[in-house]
Design brief:
It contains two helices and three strands, in the order E-E-E-H-H. By secondary structure, the chain is of the alpha+beta class. The protein has two domains: about 5-65, no CATH class; about 70-105. Strands 1-2-3 form a three-stranded antiparallel β-sheet, covered by helices on one side.
Length: about 110
């Protein structure tokens, strides 16, 4: 990269969702992809260090500006709400099945 240049790379955040209990603790995976491949990390500090190795430049200060993607946050919240509704409905259905099997017959 030349002096005073800026490179914008898309940051993707992945969070696995456990469909079976017991669920593992929530972890996010950060991924940056460009023409030369991808870099993955569990935290922003490690990702920053890996980017400095890939794009070395000792004369200029490097930083990772953070911008909130409100649309992604909205979609994430909607998805988590829908997933919670699916789990709740499955729990109610299972409870009703158990009650039907254990109910004494008159």
């Amino acid at each position: 990269m030349r002096d005073n240049s800026v490179r914008s790379l898309p940051l993707k955040i992945f969070q696995p969702v456990a469909l079976r209990l017991p669920a593992e603790p929530a972890q996010q995976l950060l991924r940056v992809e460009d023409d030369s491949g991808s870099i993955e990390s569990r935290d922003i500090e490690s990702l920053s260090a890996q980017l400095r190795l890939r794009y070395p430049d000792g004369q200029f200060e490097r930083y990772l500006p953070a911008e909130r993607d409100e649309e992604s946050e909205r979609r994430y919240a909607e998805g988590m709400t829908a997933l919670a509704e699916i789990f709740a409905q499955a729990a109610v259905d299972e409870l009703l099945r158990e009650c039907a099997h254990t109910r004494p017959k008159s």
